């Protein structure tokens, strides 16, 4: 099989969506990037038919991964926010170049229960379905950033371009300041400047061979907006019992609502009625750990069985962002081989004929803002039945009050497929930013092959 080199001045295959991924040879490293969504138009033919059973399998797998990842990240204190869809998309591109045990581990962790030939068209169809927006702004972009003259195999390139809309741009990673600057500028542009400085120059070096990036950006207004004149400062009770003041929005209207013992669930649609914010509110300020422990795909499906009710909603305004280095988390979940710098362990032979490529890290950054008009969210990643007390529905009162004045879990999801675009937890109004999850530094080497 021949390899193909890419000229940075050749723009004929560069499409508006962009994804970032970086690869190294031992003793170099691979970084896979997942960034915020920018509007995605790519080579996938929207009229191409994808079997409905394949789409159902993809939806189920994406939900399973989102909940599994949340179960790992929930050990982080206080607020939490990430985009499981962004991470899955970036790794799906990476998986297009993985082989052997490495591919098997990735498939298992991300619940990629479709063969590669079916998986990529299904992702393309889902992305088109999501970004075919009416009433809201949802954009997705992908890009590959390759070291100058680094040979990529044509089948890998074709897959990433045809199904993920990921054009290729050549960089000189030895100039880490310039390379990280260009990548960060692209990320900032795709996320409307909500995600900045995704990468630091220290994340790149002369051994970097490829960076994959995926960017996702969402902005939606409520179908029924809050009146800012009604927003007042009210107490929010932390899990510890401490109280803090928050700007609490209020409105009464018809919403999707479900109630279980010790749990209220509310759905607030965005204009277009295609996407919605779902809030899962425990009965007590310290009830979130029990809710999170019961968070399975089956339980979530039950909790989202809404009926339309007149609800008085009290919801805090909030804004925060969070960064993650996901190498250790994903390794713990079962895909350690992809991150191994030991020769012959990581197998990305479907990406390049160059040997000993591996992933150095998966870097993810996400931002969320909820106010009277609606929600704004962005995220970026770089890959350098009834159970317990919450199982059975409770009878609904004639007048319903949904007062989110204590820690809660929330999702931004596509209603038809159930795809979770963003997921998080609001636990502490005083925290606007969270520190990155600690990761082990990549090994250093004086030379690259």
Describe this structure as you would to a colleague.
This protein is α+β, with helices and mostly antiparallel strands and 449 residues long. The protein has two domains: 20-221 and 320-367, Antithrombin, subunit I, domain 2 (Antithrombin, Chain I, domain 2, 2-Layer Sandwich); 228-316 and 387-430, Alpha-1-antitrypsin, domain 1 (Roll). The protein has helices spanning 52-73, 84-95, 100-109, 116-131, 154-164, 176-190, 288-293, 297-303, 327-333; strands at residues 20-25, 31-33, 80-82, 136-147, 168-171, 208-221, 232-237, 243-260, 263-269, 275-282, 307-316, 318-325, 357-358, 361-370, 374-382, 400-403, 408-414, 420-426, 433-434. Strands 3, 7, 8, 9, 10, 11, 16, 17 and 18 form a nine-stranded mixed sheet that branches. Helix 2 runs antiparallel to helix 4. Residues 1-47, 385-394 and 435-441 have low confidence and may be disordered.
Which descriptors apply to this entry?
Alpha-1-antitrypsin, domain 1, 9 helices, 9-stranded mixed β-sheet, Antithrombin, Chain I, domain 2, 2 domains, 5-stranded mixed barrel
């Amino acid at each position: 099989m021949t390899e193909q080199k890419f000229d940075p001045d050749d723009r004929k295959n560069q499409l508006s969506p962009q994804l970032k991924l970086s690869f190294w040879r031992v003793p170099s490293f691979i970084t896979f990037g997942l960034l915020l969504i920018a509007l995605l138009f790519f080579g996938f033919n929207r009229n191409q038919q994808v079997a409905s059973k394949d789409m159902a399998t993809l939806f189920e797998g994406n939900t399973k991964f989102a909940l599994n990842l949340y179960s790992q990240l929930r050990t982080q204190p206080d607020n939490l926010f990430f985009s499981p869809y962004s991470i899955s998309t970036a790794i799906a591109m990476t998986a297009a170049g993985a082989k052997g045990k490495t591919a098997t581990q990735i498939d298992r962790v991300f619940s990629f229960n479709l063969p590669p030939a079916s998986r990529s068209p299904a992702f393309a169809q889902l992305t088109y379905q999501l970004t075919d927006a009416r009433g809201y702004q949802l954009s997705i972009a992908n890009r590959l950033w390759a070291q100058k003259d680094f040979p990529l195999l044509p089948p890998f390139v074709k897959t990433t371009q045809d199904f993920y809309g990921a054009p290729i741009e050549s960089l000189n990673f030895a100039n880490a300041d310039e390379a990280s600057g260009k990548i960060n500028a692209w990320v900032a542009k795709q996320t409307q400047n909500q995600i900045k400085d995704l990468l630091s120059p220290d994340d790149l070096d002369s051994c970097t061979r490829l960076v994959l990036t995926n960017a996702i950006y969402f902005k939606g207004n409520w179908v029924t907006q809050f009146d800012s004149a009604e927003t007042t400062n009210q107490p929010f009770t932390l899990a510890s019992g401490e109280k803090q003041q928050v700007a609490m929005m209020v409105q009464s209207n018809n919403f999707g609502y479900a109630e279980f013992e010790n749990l209220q669930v509310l759905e607030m649609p965005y204009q277009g009625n295609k996407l919605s914010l779902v809030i899962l509110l425990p009965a007590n300020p310290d009830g979130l750990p029990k809710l999170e422990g019961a968070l399975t795909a089956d339980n979530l499906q039950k909790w989202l069985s809404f009926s339309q009710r007149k609800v008085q909603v009290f919801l805090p305004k909030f804004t925060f962002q969070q960064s993650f280095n996901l190498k250790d988390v994903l390794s713990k979940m079962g895909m350690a081989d992809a991150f191994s710098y030991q020769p012959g362990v990581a197998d990305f032979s479907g990406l390049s004929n160059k040997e000993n490529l591996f992933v150095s890290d998966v870097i993810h950054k996400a931002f969320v803002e909820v106010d009277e008009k609606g929600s704004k969210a962005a995220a970026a990643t770089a890959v350098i039945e009834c159970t317990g007390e919450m199982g059975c529905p409770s009878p609904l009162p004639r007048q319903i009050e949904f007062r989110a004045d204590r820690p809660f879990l929330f999702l931004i999801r596509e209603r038809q497929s159930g795809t979770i675009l963003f997921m998080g937890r609001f636990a502490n109004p005083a925290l606007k930013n969270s520190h990155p999850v600690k990761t082990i530094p990549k090994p250093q080497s004086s030379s690259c092959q």
